[in-house]
Amino acid sequence: MPIVFIEMYGFSLNMEGVAFLGILVGAILTIPPYFAYLYYIQEPQFDDDGNIEPEKRLPPAMVGAFAIVICLFWFGWSAGRTHWIVPIIGSAFFSIGAFCLFNAV
User: Fold this and answer.
1) Can you give 36-48 as a three-state secondary structure string?
2) What is the mean pLDDT of residues 91-104?
3) DSSP state of 8
4) Structural domain spans, the chain
5) Where are the alpha helices (DSSP H) in the chain?
């Protein structure tokens, strides 16, 4: 983040913190659907003893894996070539991917 936004776009050190807003927005947009998925889809699949097959936890991880790839490609391709907001929007996919992937695993 500092290399891209301070060196390429000329952000000051204070303004460089704005670059992390994409990650915050991605997390805010991810949390409600993920918890709804857990409550409505995954929780009914538990048996009476509280066990679930491990494979049933993987669908969010598959979404998260693709989101991280999208983030890395989008951020790397657009950094320095486009308006400064484009890599910030791409970084939002990182929090989507990290949240879904690590919580599922």
Assistant:
1) HHHHHHHHHHCCC
2) 94
3) I
4) 20-44+54-104
5) 2, 21-37, 59-78, 85-104
DSSP assignment letter at 42: I
C-alpha Rg value of the chain to the nearest Å: 17
Residue 102 identity (one-letter amino acid):
F
- Residues in CB range of 71: below 8 A, 6 or more apart: 90, 91, 92, 93, 94, 96, 97
**47-79: per-residue pLDDT in tens?**
999 999 999 999 999 999 999 999 999 999 999
Q: With beta carbons less than 8 A apart as the criterion, state whether 104 and 78 touch.
A: no
Least Cα distance to 88 among 7, 22, 4 occurs for 22
Does the CA dihedral 42-43-45-46 come out positive or negative? positive
Query: What pTM value is reported for the model?
Result: 0.85
